[in-house]
Amino acid sequence: MKAFRVFVVPFLLLPVFFAATLLLSSQWEREFVIYPAGPDLPRFQSADEEETGEVDGTEAAEEESPVRNRKEKGTAQRIRRVNGKLEAGYNFLNFNKDRLSVSFSISEDEYKAYLSGYGYSDDKVSNLNQWRESARRKEWDKAVKKGGEAAGKEALKAVDWEYRVRLNEFFNSRGFALLPGNIIVCDIPGIVKRNIQFLKPMALAFQKISEARGYGPEETVGAVLSMAQTALLYKIPPMIEGGLHTGGLLPPGRALFSGWGDCDTKTALVASILGNWSGMRLVGISVPGHYLMAIRRIPAKGDLFVRYDGLEYVLIEPAGPAWLEPGAVGGNTSALLQGAEGYKIEPFF
């Protein structure tokens, strides 16, 4: 297949049918439109809708789930609780056809603390809104007594500015970004940065494999990618779970202990692991209905790539279940990248 160049075009918001709205409860309330960055359409990827055992810190799970679209045997997952620790093990084949195994474990308390940093509830947003309403009344009265209506209006501006700061900080702390127009998106670059250190043990496991087998950087990247594509099942997360807005994304740690994820979930996982290697330069690629990534390197013959800041980045498609090496993407992804609606490049680091 011949290489083609996908040129950067202005970002267009995802289609409105992915939107969910949240109406706040005061007279100054504004509508928040929730756009998960990279929500998936089932037709874009083949999604096995089988349920996978998931460890949530309170229930044990043990699952071995061969990926059914692969001819080779040996791709499986094992997720369980042992003596207060959670363990996730994955067996898979890389692009060299080598059989590889990696595992990751943390304590149940660490996992609960990790999960507490993602998703948000309507109550938390309502609390911020109530603070704003109360502060506006209080500061208005105080300012008007001292300097009249003009001073009161300035006081309201100050309260609104602080409210916006608090709101941004809140969403950022939960794995989201608040964009102009009150659009809430999953902050995938932010999630990746937060998870690099957390997934360092996983990166070290791949590093150990690479050293033992004499892999270079390309094979190491391929090993991480093939694990995400094939050993983790493809499944779309719910938009709301347990009263929390998720944005349709599992954080990388939860993906490992769940054994599944969709395109943006698996992209964040792969990028978080690869981010542990110095000199690694990665970008996210958001198109309507899909999310993938690209790695900075000179394209080989046949590689698909994008340009960012004048440099070539080779495309990587972590979603699976297709087994696609760096430089190759699915047919639907290729069409989306060249489509009229365009795409957005988001630097991870």
Structural account:
The protein has 349 residues and is an alpha+beta fold. Helix content is 35%, strand content 23%. It contains 8 helices and 17 strands. A hairpin with a 2-residue loop joins strand 15 (305-308) and strand 16 (311-316).
Q: Could you say which structural class the secondary elements and strand pairing correspond to? A: alpha+beta
Radius of gyration, taken over Cα atoms and rounded to an integer in Å: 22 Å
| Shape, per Cα inertia axes | globular
SSE string, helix = H, strand = E?
A: EEEEEEHHEEHHHEEEHEHEEEEHE
Distance between the termini: 30 Å
Strand order of the largest sheet: 1-15-16-14-13-17
Number of DSSP E strands = 17
Count of individual helical segments: 8
What does the largest sheet look like? Answer: 6 strands, mixed
Our estimate of the beta-strand percent is 15-25%
Notable traits:
single chain; 349 residues; alpha+beta; six-stranded mixed β-sheet; four-stranded mixed β-sheet; 17 strands; 23% strand
Q: What is the element layout, followed by pairings?
A:
Blueprint: E1 5-6, E2 20-23, E3 31-35, E4 76-82, E5 85-93, E6 99-107, H1 108-115, H2 122-173, E7 176-179, E8 183-186, H3 188-195, H4 200-213, H5 217-231, E9 233-234, E10 240-241, E11 244-245, H6 252-258, E12 260-261, H7 263-274, E13 282-287, E14 290-296, E15 305-308, E16 311-316, H8 331-337, E17 344-347
Helix pairs in contact: 3-7, 4-5, 5-7, 6-7
